[in-house]
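Posting this for the archive.
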Amino acid sequence: MLNAAICKKFPGFTVEVEFAFEQGILVLFGPSGSGKTTVLNCLSGLVRPDSGAISLGDRIFFSSVQGIDVPVRKRRTGYVFQHYALFPHMTVKDNVLYGVPGRHKMKVKDRYRMSVLEVLEMLKITRLQDRYPSELSGGEKQRVALARALMVEPELLLLDEPLSAVDHAMRKDLRQELRQLQRIWRIPFVLVTHSREEMKVLADEVLFMKAGRKTSHVDMAAKRSERGLLSGEAEDERTAAKIYPFHAKNHESPVHDL
C-alpha cells in the first residue's frame, strides 16, 4: 500500500494532497500547473515535502514528524521522465544499465530477478541495444526509459507524461503495453497525464487534481466493472464523458507541470 500525505509550498502556490493506493495504475490527472509532477518528485525523493509522510508498505520514505527522509537511491523507485532523460553519449544498453552498479556483465542474479537482456527482450528492444538515443524513434526511446527504470527492480514506478512525445498512432499500442507491464510486474504505477483518453484507458484509480489540491479520488476499475466495460479503448466518447469526471479541457500536446 502506498500512503502519501504531501505538503509542498512554493511562492504563491501550495501542493497539498493525501491519498492511499494499493495496486494497479494510479493516474494523477489535471490541467497543467496543478501539481501532478510535484507529487511524483516528492514520492521519488527528488523534492522534499515541507510536511507530511510517505510510505510504501512498511517502509517509510518520508516523515516530517519522525525526521525521516530516505535518499532517492534507497527508495527503490523507478522514474520515467516526460522527455525520457536518456544520455545521448551512451548506447541503449548502457542507458538501461545506468544506476545499477556492478551489473555490466549481468551474470549475477542473486539480488535481481531479471538480467538486462531479459528486460530488453521483454520490452522488444534487444535489437536496439548498441544504438544511441539519436538513432531511436519516440516509441523506442520510451521503451528504453522504461527498461532503465525497471532495471533497478523498483517497488514503485513513477511515469511523468510517458506518452507525450510519441505520435497518436503509437500511443494506442504503448498504452496497452503499459497496462500489460504493470500486470506482469505487480507493483504500483503512478502516472501523470492531462489526457482524458490516456486516463480512461490506463487508470485503475484516478486522483483528480486542480490548483495543487485533490478534487476527487475515483476507482475506475470498479466503475468499469459496474457497467460491464472491459476496455477503455472500446468506449464511446460520449459514454466516457459521463462515466469519468473531468476538471479541465483535454490537450494532447506536451505540457510543463510543477
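The CA atoms of residues 121 and 127 lie 9 Å apart. The first strand starts at residue 2 and ends at 10.
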